[in-house]
Amino acid sequence: MIFPSDAIMLPPDPDSLDPHDWDAFRAQSHQMLDDMLDYAQQIRQRPVWQAAPASARAQFAQPLPRAPGDLADAHASFMHDVLPYAAGNVHPGFMGWVHGGGTPVGMLAEMLAAGLNANVGGRNQMPVEVERQIARWMAELFGFPGTASGVFVTGTSMANLMGLLVARTQALGVAARQDGLQGAPLVAYTSAAAHGCIAQAMDLSGLGTAALRRIAVNASGQIDVAALAQAIAADRAAGLRPFFIAGTAGTVDTGAIDDLPALAALAAREQLWFHVDGAYGALGMLSPEVAPLLAGIELADSLAFDFHKWGQVPYDAGFLLVRDGARHMAAFAAPAAYLRREARGLAGGSPWPCDFGPDLSRGFRALKTWFTFKVHGAERMGAAIAHTCALARYLAERVQATPQLELLAPVTLNIVCFRHRGAANGDSDAFNGEIVADLHESGIAAPSTTTIAGQLAIRAAIVNHRTRAEDVDALLAGVLRFGAARLS
Q1: 12 by DSSP, 3-state: which?
Q2: What are the tens digits of pLDDT across the range 335-354?
Q3: Which residues contact 341 (CB under 8 A, 6 or more apart)?
Q4: Count of alpha carbons within 13 angstroms of residue 473, beta-carbon side
Q5: Which of helix, strand or coil describes residue 122?
Q6: What does the pLDDT read at residue 4?
Q7: Using omega within 30 degrees of 0 as the cis cutoff, is the peptide bond preceding 359 cis?
Q8: Measured between alpha carbons, how far is residue 325 from residues 150, 177, 342, 457 in Å?
Q9: CA nearest 475: which of 451, 441, 448, 439?
């Protein structure tokens, strides 16, 4: 056997894309790493967001490069024309949508994964085992049985679609993968506050969005379980076939958590698949303070969530966890001669991750997740999650104590929806929308907006582990300053 240390050193291959001067390449690589570490370390010195000038955009309107270029030049272009004009979710003042902040540890793990360049679709290799370990850790965290399976995907939108497909295969049988729906009158249910990707999953699965019942929510933003039961009964009476309930653990608008035990009990009585969209809220299980709010999540048949939100893993790292691995595999496994499995050699190690989802070519997303847990530990990650929730409560208290502001929804987790009262006779929605745009352009903070009870709300989702009370104070000071300026 030839080991690397015994290999003969050959001159550079002119047809290879490897560096011809490894020492120069190494020096430039170190500079690039240092620049990104500086970016993270000094992030507070930067604006949260700033609009890209026309000169920067023009750099990306150039034709396809035909001749080789210089790595240092490409890096300089990145530093000058890309890095300053990103969305800004690394910054502690970013409070828009639900974006994680990432970590330097995760960034380094991404570098290692890229260097290894593993295709984790399958085969007998340790990167697959790393992904399997994450699946076992998640089964432990969420109280799933040893029969559970898990797979990395781009994000919860994909994971929700895959959970729906597993449920569809369970309802119609594996033959439906070949024969199609054959007019099967399947119907599914979710909350009116659920993320739009649930409807998209119905669309992409071939069932159609008209077969999704969006059930009203109560005053706490949770699905009305009694109304859900009535809708199921009405559909059965109409000759339709209910098969799927999607609960939500952390709604996108307000962070509300559905009554998961009640949904699980109803699904069991009606023999329906119980899926939970836990895009960001599910990882609250890492926090002893938040976990009790998620009671019942352990009863789900499938669970979708993202490590790149509250887990702070760099994008992208979504995950689907399925209680019954055999049912999961039945929905996706597709034997082919060119994917033949063997008892030994590189073609061993079956089943492969590609048996649990549609992707055959898959990046090594598990490594940055594995590093995040190994280096920071579940307890520290849970403490960061609890801290964001405490900051949200602090923000809500400050809003309620400020006469110019009003709170528009209860604060369950880390999302606060509020607004400036503005002028008595003015267009309050437009007024608050302008305040948010003012905040973005100032670089002070970056909340987003949503609509609560017909009113446009300033929506602050505190997800970043770097955010502190002074960042919340800066957001509020900005809202009040820009509001006052527009009223003057």
Answers
A1: coil
A2: 887 788 988 999 999 999 99
A3: 347, 348, 349, 350, 352
A4: 3
A5: coil
A6: 58
A7: no
A8: 8, 18, 21, 42
A9: 439
Phi-psi domain of 341 (left: phi exceeds 0; alpha: psi -120 through 50; beta: other): beta
On the question of a cis peptide bond just before residue 351, with omega within 30 degrees of 0, the verdict is yes
pLDDT, one tens digit per residue, over 67-122 is 999 999 999 999 999 999 999 999 999 999 999 999 999 999 999 999 999 999 99
Residue from 427, 430, 445 nearest 481 by CA: 445
CA pair distance 36, 334, nearest whole angstrom: 41
Residue of 102, 84, 89, 96 whose CA lies nearest to 446:
96
Nearest partner of 466 among 2, 88, 15, judged by Cα: 88
Distances (CA, A) of 66 to 62, 63, 270: 12, 9, 62
- As a whole number of angstroms, the distance between CA 343 and CA 249 comes to 41
d(CA 440, CA 431): 15
DSSP letter string, 141-165 = HHT--TT-EEEEES-HHHHHHHHHH
Q: If you search the block for the tokens 């670089």, which residue do you land on?
A: 443
